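Q: I have 225 residues here and want to know how they pack in 3D. Can you give me a structure?
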Amino acid sequence: MRGIFLLTAIPAALTIVVLLAGLREPPRTQDSTLTPNRRPAWQELSSGYKRLLLALGVFALGGSTDAFLLLRLNAVGISAAGVSLLWAAHQGVKVVSTYAGGALTDRIGARPVLTLGWILYAAVYLAFAAVETREWLIAVFLIYGLYYGLTDAARHTWVSLLVPADLRGTAFGYFHGVIGLTALPASLLFGLLLQAFGAPVAFLSGALLAALASVLLLSVPRRIG
């Protein structure tokens, strides 16, 4: 394990080198209508952006750590080594589908792609609640990788379309703040439900919250202006 952690430091160090030596931001042009060095206020962000944050918060409450999915796979008889291989395959699906999801977002827009991704998430959790067959759970887990591809680019794109250009940093700060603040209670809630009522109820709760969040997206405009 020490050797594995040491090896993971190599790409991390190379990433820093690329950031420092190979990446250049374009110079910022100051808009004459904006006040330099002002403190952006919550009130300046659009109501559509705030409705998107609400939907993201509801969804995140049902988005427990993927470790619970791995525990479910292990519970149906898949060995630790098998779970590790499935996790690697899952990551491969994520890599391929992320590119496809970004291209699809550019083509048809962020709302339908993000909604589709959240519905897929709800369907996966519903399947993990209802299915006991090992082969089916393996297939569903691999399909789960498509959720990341459909949602990652779409949600970031949608945030950028709902706020003025000079407030995007602030908007993404709130965005990641909501996700971070809900991460612990989401997994805690799932764990309590899992311990008290079993896996079907816990996964069903995640599916219902994802479905509710998908409905909330209907009230979010495609862009400001």
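Q: Anything worth noting?
A: The longest helix spans residues 168-197. The mean pLDDT is 89.
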